[in-house]
Design goal:
Helix content is about 35%, strand content about 25%. A six-stranded antiparallel β-sheet has the order 3-2-1-6-5-4, with helices on both faces. The protein contains ten helices and 16 strands. Helix 1 (about 5-20) packs antiparallel against helix 2 (about 25-45), helix 1 packs parallel to helix 4 and helix 2 packs antiparallel against helix 4 (about 140-160). The termini are far apart. Strand 12 and strand 13 (about 300-305) form a beta hairpin.
Length: about 400
């Protein structure tokens, strides 16, 4: 079994590749090759190939030289029961030898091998992507990976087809982000999100309950573009509907996870950090697999470690709430991985330590100035190039009211 953190990292890389790869004649060939290259040894998948719908059959369109020495089915009838089952479920593992989409697999072969397939649907065209599974495959890993890739490919094809409607999507997402931070006595709060594309997969929001407490969240949906933006919409809407002052945070977040998992975008996942902050400095938080926030007070650095898994990957998640105190003068920094993973020309990442150094050096400045320092430094570090990933930062600074005001 592949280690979950490695699996999610590789899958996120592949989804990003799908989101950025040029669409056209070779788009599907490139992604199928990339899927096998990325997960072949981990998931035990080999011999990826593509069948295109033509009248009564699905016809093999993968380069035939890839299978010169292999007996392989070149046409699959559209009305065959295995194809009907595949179209209904959209991904299918044919582990029953008497119910198979490709009879040539395991025919006259010495090694164990079974077919597994998923569908891809364009505005007019329809394809079947088929792999062979070797010994050691695990159903949950295959299904999760195939469904994630299928959704990403379908969404990318669809998004290309509706480019003329992208402006509307931008306006919808902009409406989900807060226009201003809540005014809380004794605190400076500032946030900003920079999407890598016209619409992004990062989210942040504020929840003001009364004059003594408020909530903050930041999250990062896997992938980019419209699919990630739709998942962000679901998460933000769910939080706004479910969060109240007297709520049970963990219960609400677990319920949100179940909703995300059951949605049509259940093959995507989202990291999420949510916290309730009381005006006296008590911070109660849940970190569901999000990049680790940190609290700066002088030279002291406190990290707010993960308390659970990312949302959406599993129907039930184990998460818990924990606590930290924000002292007067301290600076809390929430961010997405688009900041720390931004690269320069040498492929060096901006990094967690560099982010901490910037905040430590600038902690006496206002929350807005600290936020600007972070984005300016990351922009310069990346040679002012296009952002490759969505980048979001929230700064919460507790003012030190014990110090006398300077008169200038």
């Amino acid at each position: 079994m592949i280690e979950p953190k490695t699996f999610y990292r590789k899958l996120d890389f592949l989804l990003n590749r799908i989101g950025h790869e040029k669409t056209g004649k070779d788009f599907l060939f490139t992604i199928v090759w990339e899927l096998e290259n990325t997960f072949g040894s981990d998931l035990n998948i080999v011999k990826g190939r593509i069948y295109e719908e033509e009248e009564n059959d699905y016809v093999l369109i993968s380069p035939e030289e890839n299978f010169k020495n292999t007996k392989i089915t070149k046409m699959i009838p559209k009305e065959s029961e295995p194809v009907i089952a595949l179209m209904k479920s959209r991904s299918y593992i044919f582990d029953n030898p008497f119910f198979t989409i490709d009879p040539s697999i395991n025919s006259n072969r010495k090694e164990y091998s079974i077919p597994a397939a998923f569908t891809v649907k364009g505005t007019e065209d329809h394809w079947i992507v088929l792999f062979e599974l070797k010994s050691g495959w695990i159903r949950e890993e295959i299904e999760f990976c195939f469904n994630a890739v299928r959704n990403a490919i379908n969404s990318r094809i669809y998004s290309e087809a509706v480019k003329n409607e992208i402006e509307q999507a931008v306006l919808i997402q902009q409406s989900l982000l807060p226009t201003s931070a809540p005014v809380i006595p004794g605190y400076q709060i500032c946030g900003y999100s920079q999407p890598a594309e016209l619409v992004g997969g990062d989210l942040y929001d504020y929840f003001k309950f009364d004059e003594t407490s408020f909530g903050i969240c930041i999250g990062d949906a896997s992938g980019h573009g419209i699919p990630a933006a739709l998942l962000v919409r679901d998460v933000v809407t769910g939080l706004r509907m479910g969060l109240e002052k007297e709520m049970k945070t963990v219960f609400t977040l677990k319920k949100l996870n179940r909703v995300i998992h059951k949605s049509v975008y259940s093959s995507l996942f989202v990291s999420l950090f949510y916290a309730d902050l009381e005006i006296n400095g008590n911070l109660f938080y849940v970190n569901a697999g999000h990049p680790i926030p940190f609290l700066i007070s002088g030279k002291e650095v406190i990290t707010l470690e993960s308390t659970g898994l990312v949302f959406g990957a599993l129907p039930e998640v184990s998460i818990h709430q924990t606590y930290v105190f924000i002292k007067p003068g301290s600076v809390l920094v929430l961010y997405s991985d688009g900041i720390i993973e931004r690269q320069n020309r040498q492929k060096e990442e901006f990094g967690f330590d560099r982010l901490i150094d910037i905040v430590v050096k600038n902690q006496k400045k206002s929350a807005k100035e600290i936020l600007d320092e972070i984005f300016n430094s990351a922009k310069i570090f990346g040679n002012s190039s296009k952002w490759e990933d969505d980048a979001t930062v929230i700064i919460i600074k507790r003012e030190d009211t014990s110090k006398p005001l300077e008169i200038t």
